[in-house]
Amino acid sequence: MGKGVSTPKPLNRNGSQVLEHGHPVWRLRVVGRLGKQVERKFIGTYEDAVIELENLRVITQASATAAEIKPVTLIDGCVAWLENHKWQVAPSKTQAGIMRKSSGLSKHKNILSAYVVPVLGKDMKLRRIEPSDLVAVVADATRSDGKPCAATTKQTIATTVRIMFRWLKSQNFIPMNPAENLSTNWGQALRVRESIPTLPEVKAAAEALDAAHPLLNLGDAYLLMAYTGLRYSEMVGLKTTLVFPFGNPRVIIKETVVSSGGKKQTYLSTKTLAGERVVPLTAQVIPVVRRLLASSAAAKSDFLVSGVRGGSLSVSLWGRALRKAREDNPGLTIYSAHYLRHIFCSVAISSGATDMEVMRLAGHANISVTRGTYGHLLNLDQADLASKLGAVFSTLESG
What we know:
Layout lengths: L8 E2 L1 E2 L2 E2 L1 E2 L2 E9 L5 E7 L2 H23 L5 H12 L1 E3 L8 E2 L2 H19 L10 H9 L11 H20 L28 H14 L5 H11 L3 H5 L13 E4 L2 E5 L2 E5 L9 E4 L5 H13 L16 H14 L8 H14 L4 H8 L4 H12 L3 H17 L1
Antiparallel strand pairs: 1-5, 2-3, 4-5, 5-6, 7-8, 9-12, 10-11
Helix pairs in contact: 2-3, 3-4, 3-5, 4-5, 6-7, 6-10, 7-9, 7-11, 11-12, 12-13
């Protein structure tokens, strides 16, 4: 018997089974997936009643599945997905679960409320949304000032929409996924550029940041990310006690500070499930770290990169300094904190690091992220690899 199926029960009256046309009468009862009980009367033998009961189960389950695909509105779907998406690891009977950082959840919420819901309408039925509707949402996305959104913003919108509709389909909110083939490439190559800036270019950008905000060592913070590949949240959350542990030239990444809704939150964990990691410090970055330590000590701050009042550096201050540095130096390329990670990983690959080593240095949760982002760089030096392999084989042949 299938789930929610009992055995046929005799229909009794005055203590004996009812007969109709000389045949016994049975009660068939099935509990559907929605918890609704379905009951039917059957006349015939017990063996035939068992077969009919199984047929009833199949029909009831099919009807329940169709009923679960409800004509909910877009706003209902958004709320349901955000409620589910707040969990990085969903709670279960054996563990409490891990909640996603509020900054990441706020980003998705803002994307939906600013670009998706206003265009499609909050009362739009999910089942009526077509692929062309979602393409138009991304393609025609505009900023608050009416100008078209940048390619990176459109990419973020498309990614959020794809993730949400994939979940809605898996939960039977919709019979088909209209975002299944929605492109996430909107005018900007998704792969990291293969060109690596020269160190004088990076140092010039750092000097421009120092000039934009002379009271803080933002230039050194910029160099720290370029030389270590730290995420911005990891850089601002790095405590001085986790720098040069036991005198070793390295930093330990185990905390992050993120901003959401104008408030800073400290997490005793990294961004991904990769967990705590150790990042080595090269000779080029050690003087930078020592300057940051001296500056932090003068500000009586626990953080390596301190803010105006000795706390962690705020993302708004960092953003204002970047904008001012770019405005004051129009011919100078000043990279974002995220792109500085790409620079570091590209340099690591150029130095001969394997994909597993890059994964550990960058703090990726799994190797597929590393290969998906830097796979084209990891495959650049096939000729050099063949040459090295040939040299080893030659040695073995002669030995």
